[in-house]
Amino acid sequence: MEKKRNLYLKTMPVEEAREKYFDRIRDIIEIKRETVDVIKSLGRVTGRAVFARYSSPLFNASAMDGIAVKAEDTRGASETEPLILREDQYAVVDTGDPVKNPFDAVIMAEDIVETHEGVRITASAAPWQHIRPIGEDIVAGEMILPGSHRIRAIDIGVLLSAGITQIEVVKKPEVAIFPTGSEIIEPDGHIEEGSIIESNSRMFENMINQLGGVGHRFPPLKDDYDLILEKVSDAARRFDMVIVNAGSSAGTEDYTVHVLRELGEVIVHGVAVKPGKPVILAVVNDKPVIGLPGYPVSAYIGFENFAAPLLQMMGRRRESINETLEAHISKRLVSSLKHKEYVRVKVGRVGDKFVAAPLARGAGAAMSLVRADGFCVIDQNSEGIEAGEKAVIELYRDRREIENTAVIIGSHDLILDIIADMMPERYPGMFVSSTHVGSMGGLMSLKRGEAHMAPIHLLDEETGEYNIPYVKRLFQEPTVLIKGVGRLQGIMVKKGNPLDIKSIEKLADGRVRYVNRQRGAGTRVLFDYRLRKLGISPEDIRGYEREMTTHMAVAAAVASDSADAGMGILSAANAMDLDFIEIASEEYDFAVPERFLELSQVKAFIEIIKSDEFKKRLEEMGGYDTEGSGSIKRG
Q1: Mean pLDDT calculated for residue range 324-329
Q2: pTM for the full model?
Q3: Which of 33, 388, 404, 556 has the most CB atoms within 10 Å of its CB?
Q4: Confidence at 289, pLDDT banded by 50, 70, 90
């Protein structure tokens, strides 16, 4: 090839060059996936959402050493009138032992006295006290990890607890690295005048490996146009990305840009950065090819600005940095003076402040570690933290991710898992965080400025209308509803409906063991409304006081035979292979202050629930109507 110089007509700002190049790469990038053993998946990135095969605990388990009893057998026991339980009225259990029918409560060993007649108790037991219900931590069928999630040590433990032994992950991007230059020699090569020991490629190789890729470093290539063309052309077929080091500047033997123009398309040649101006950003065979300058500092800066973020995009990998921030605690945390306590929290930025929502505090709640963004540490000798107070949060999630997260607090539905899975896939760098506190709890959180939106399904008894009357009554700030989905509510029962339950009236016959939702949940509001209309007292419902915080937890209780029936949505019944008696069709929407509609994560959220992919996934689950999903409803 005739020698000629590469003259820069202009250089492009780094941010503009990166955006222009990445916009081109996004159109052609192929995310490859592979299956690996969970025990070898540390640091890998999930290729798709992962759903639990089994619940944890697998059965109703005793949370204490003591005796399992029927709560109704203990009624009336007190210090002044102790009760004696016969041997056939209790079973000795240790922590973690199964609690089987007909027992539904555990009394601690410290609270019983053995006698020759049996055991003496001095207090009645509440139903389900000191019992970890099946699925308390993980419910079979629920999402454990979303797609594009970097797997941590705690994630591996939870995956195994949920019966997952193999997992689909993003395949590590394979990168070919070619050092070029006739003057380049290997570190152990023969040194002559003008020789330069090659080291950049080894730096690149290790930076690639550190970023979750696989670097393949090739021996140095001489300044030979045809040789460089042959090697780069072959590599662009075999590898996911190619880096050519040196030969990108304005010298007469700097062939890289000419080779890349002949083989493909040069998007950018020359960026406005010093040192490191002669960077080449190209596409060959629908693969990214980057030409980096030869000087070590220039090479490093070029790699950090372009190759590193491109690798993270291709590998769906995000580097996290441990740091701390101050956040407002969303609810009061009471702590013992005896211990230093680590409370798991979800963190989000809402408006101009960070908000931390505490998660389950039990030592057995492993999923709380997976869901958490960090710890709120309450020092020994502190009685806790009041709601709204600031506290220091130790993060183990990147602060930038937290700032780009849509914070959702309110009613539970399986669609929140679908949205959380789709968000980072369709909108890299954006996320969804959801906490389940019921519809009314969500509206209160929204009013206190702790969330961007609250999913709700609240029936107004006076008007028969869903959701809008509550928003009108509670908010002075302009607040709208993002239309979510229509869904079916009903009674979930065992396959075959052995007790022949066909209506709410049947739940009051004394034989049916019911499991309820927590106070403030829209499902609880609907159930209570129906009871009042039918003239049925909650006291007539056996198990009315037993509460679960999600539809899947209710479904798991019915599926495991610790309950006969529970109100919930059709998709949860389908997920647990239960029968379903339809009670009502309802509207599940998202209340959001109008000012938040301009946030990028909220816009992304709306686009997802409007998308055909979202609607298709809900159709597969069953029980949803997506007509108008994503539209804005104003009262």
Answers
A1: 88
A2: 0.71
A3: 556
A4: very high
